[in-house]
Structures are given as C-alpha cells and as structure tokens.
Amino acid sequence: MSNFDLRPDFAKIPNVKPSFNVGALLDVVNGSIETGIYGESILNGGVSGISAYCGIGNNFKSTISHYVMLSAGSKFNHSTFSTYDTEINISEARLRVLTNRIEEFNGEDILSTGRWSITDKTVYYGNEWFEKLKDFLELKIKNSDKITVNSPFLDRDGKLLKMLIPTFTELDSLTKFNTKSSTTMQEDNELGDSAINMLYMKEGQAKKQMISYLPKPLQQANNPMFITAHIGKSIPMDPRAAPVKKLQFLKNNDTLKGVTDDFTFLTTNCWQCQNATPLFNDTTKGPEYPRNSDDNMKGDTDLFLVTLVQLRSKTGPSGLLMQLIVSQQEGVLPSLSEFHYIKTNDRYGLNGTLQNYSLDLYPNVKLSRTTVRGKIDTDPLLRRAILITSEMCQMKYLWHYLPKDLLCTPKELYDDIIKLGYDWNMLLATRSWWTSDNDKHPIPFVSTFDLLNMRAQKYVPYFLKPEEVPIACRHIPRLNVK
Predict the structure, then answer these.
(1) SS3 assignment, position 273
(2) Strands of 362-368's sheet in order across
(3) 478, 460 Cβ separation under 8 angstroms
(4) What is the number of structural domains in the chain?
C-alpha cells in the first residue's frame, strides 16, 4: 500500500448541529444525547432548521408555533424573534399573554423591548419581507465574529463548539403568502378573468424559490424558522382512484394548501395538528384540569387536547403521535401536557389512588385532578419533577438503545439518588435545558440523563465542590472540574 491519502480533501461540517430545547414533550422525540466538557449529558433536541405546523382552522397550529419559537429562544440572552403575519389577524395583546407564560423571559415584555417584532402584508408584500429577511441573515453571517458564543457541545478537537447567538423567524402562514406581482394581478383583473388562472402558478413559483433558498442561510446564521400551513381536502376526479399522499402519515385526502413540494422535504420537522377537542371532565363536564376550585363551569372550553402527528422528521421518528394541552387564553401549557402524558401512560411515576396521588420524584406534594394545574403554576420544583418524569417515560418507550444499567423507574431513581447522599430538592432546583456559556448560567444544569448516570455512579454534577460531593460518590472521576 502506498502513502497516497485516499481521503478526499473536503471541509467538514460541524460534528453537532445544535437543536434547541423547548419542553412540552418535544425534546426527547427529536433529540439525542451529546457529552459536554464536564462529562455532562446534554439533550440536543427540540427544534432546529425549519419547523412546520399544519392543520385545518382552529387546531392551534399558530399557537403551537408561537410557543415553540418563544420557548426555544427564551433560554438565550440577546436572542430575537420576528413574525410575518400573512393572514393579518395577529393581536399583540394576545401574544403578550403567551410570552408572560414563559418563565425564562423573567417578566420581560419582549414586544415592548423589541426582541419580538411583528409585521404583516399591510406593511410588506411577501417578496419585500423575504428580501428583508435575506438582508438580515446575510448581515448576521457577515458579522459572525461579533455574535459568536460557546455552545456546551464539543467539536471534533474536544473544545467547546462555537455558534452564533440564535435568532428566530416565523412565517404564519405560507398558505396565504403572496407577492406584489401576484397581488397586482388580482387587483388588475376582475373575478373570473382568464388571466387569473396564472395567479397560483406565479405564487407557487415564488414560494418554491423562497423555500429552496432558505435552508443554507438559516443554518449559517443559526436562525431556526417556523412555518405554518393550512390543510384542506383533495377531491379526486376519479373517486375510484387510490389517494395520492405526498407524506406517508398525512391522512387520506388531506392536502397541504398553497405550499410547494419543497415544503414537504426541506423542513426538518413537520407536524400536523390533526385534532383539537375540548378537554372536559366526564363527570362534571367542566375543565379536566381547573385552575382552582372556582374554575369548574360546565361547558368551559378553555382547555383543548390537541393531537399532533409528526408527518416527517430528520431528527426523530415520523408517524409519532402525541398530545398537547392548549389553553385558548394562555396558549400551550407545557408542564400540564407533560403531566397528562405520564398520567395517561399507566400513571408512570405516580403513586396513590386514582383521586389523590403524588409524584415519585416529589412525594411530599399531594396532587389531584382539581389541584394539579394550580400547583404547577406556583411550584417550580413540581414543574421540574414532572419534566424529569415525562422525559424518563419518553426515553423508556422511544429510546431502545439505553444501557441496561441506566434503566430504572422514577421511584428507583429517587430512592437510589438519596441513598447516595444527594439532596433531591437541590437537584430539582436545577435546569434541564442547555444554553450558551452553559456552565456560567446562575441556575446549574442537570439533565434527566445526568440523573440516570448519577444513580449508576457514572457522573457527578460539575458545579459541586469537592466537599459537596457525597462520600459514596467521591471515587467517580470528574472531567475538567477545578
């Protein structure tokens, strides 16, 4: 064998593409574990690239898109958001309620401070907005040296992977996106004129050009994008013909309206909101999870259970079915969605009776159907315990490659962690989501996977001083901890 190097001389892409944590059951399904500089386990999952949410009207696709975008960006200082409303129906007062529900904003009114800018087609035609977006992405890439921060992920050389401060863009919706030329065509012709026949072809070409262009600059600028689209019914000319499906898990005769084929294969994740039903209690006919004892009006339709199907995913399983609880007034309720998930999965991690129970990871707080929502809103440790439990449940059912020594129940995790000498309430006072300069954040980082490794005596949290490490765990090697 000669010394000729058979490896082609191509520049390599980053070994990790950051994906942002959003909670509400959306991280594990599209995530994987990456090891950090201290040996910590980071859940690289949630959203990245282009995320799409489609459905018929009143199925909360816009509300879910707003939540996911804001939740992802709320973890990062200086992150910004922009929304282009093609349907001209967004209310800032409504959006302000949604932002107030996300605790990582720490009470900041991001609409007033300018972190979230809203515009619509009364201000810009679609092509004008797209040119403004291109200019922003190009400017961000050009000035990358000024806005580069450390991610917690390791590059190929074992150093912290650099990334640009993330920014986020939302297009709501692609279905109603149109350009100046197509609008002029509508204005210059009467209804029924033959010239109008070219309108949708012209709009389709513009949308195809835009969607085809975006993946590269969005990735380079670290600017995830969120797009909504409408679902309609296709009526076949031949009723005996087999239905044609552009996406395997799209319902028969459902069709994405006003989008191009690129939408179906250039999106990183595409979710269909297939069903939204009021979440009533079978007995009282009031909300299944009332805010308090007075919130029990029969027929109250504030809470909805929204069923989503992942039509396609480049980071997780396609065809996955999941449910989110959405309040018409408050938007997506992440912790309540996570609680409902474990409750309806054989009461995973819950102990007690059907009426009164507690979490195995937080046993001293008693819960019931009528009190859990109010306690979630007021107790951050409860929210943390619910998140850990729901992620353990998802990992059990979705991650079939977990090492056997990490597999355990929430009760086993709780008991064994305490036996090792850890303060469980201290561990609940941490965060699960990653951010830039992750180890410098005032709230220390401990992921669900870290907890499993701690129980297996494979990891000690990086932020503990040597004297704070339980005696039973002081033999465990620690990486890069001074």
Answers:
(1) strand
(2) 350-352, 356-359, 362-368
(3) yes
(4) 2
3-state secondary structure of 107: coil
**pTM (predicted TM-score):** 0.94
Kindly state whether residues 88 and 190 are assigned to the same domain: yes
Specify if 79 maps to a domain: yes
Burial class of residue 100, CB neighbours in 10 A (0-12, 13-18, 19+): middle
Please list the residues that pair with 164 across neighbouring strands: 148
Task: Tell me which of 317, 351, 376 is where a domain ends.
Answer: 317
Tokens standing for residue 427: 């561990």
Q: How far is CA 123 from the centre of its chain?
A: 29
Q: What 3-state DSSP class applies to 364?
A: strand
| Residue 104 structural domain | 32-237+245-317
DSSP string, 411-457: HHHHHHHHHHT--HHHHHTSB----TTGGGSSSPB--HHHHHHHHTT
Tell me which of 317, 345, 379 is where a domain ends. 317
pLDDT digits (tens, 9 = 90+) for 425-435: 999 999 999 99
pLDDT tens digit sequence for 189-205: 665 565 666 666 777 88
